[in-house]
Design a protein that fits this description.
With 66 residues, this protein is mostly helical. The chain is 55% helix and 0% strand. The chain has helices at residues 8-11, 15-29, 38-43, 52-62.
């Protein structure tokens, strides 16, 4: 994943912020060849700023109705 508007080296110094930013980028703009870490996604779910439709779909996948 390439991002021209963010200094990734600087952002990686702040692990929590980088994790949230990276998850948001992967969901909102595509994965490339990466896979989303399900555990990290669930852990940071309430902090993620995601597209509403994508967030609803992922919520359905992560916590299916019983």
């Amino acid at each position: 994943m390439n991002n021209w508007s963010v200094d990734i080296k600087q952002l990686k110094k702040h692990k929590k912020q980088y994790t949230i930013w990276h998850l948001e980028q992967m969901v909102n703009f595509g994965l490339g060849k990466e896979k989303i870490n399900k555990k990290q996604l669930k852990k940071n779910w309430s902090k993620l700023d995601l597209d509403v439709k994508k967030k609803n779909y992922l919520s359905f996948l992560l916590w299916p109705a019983k």
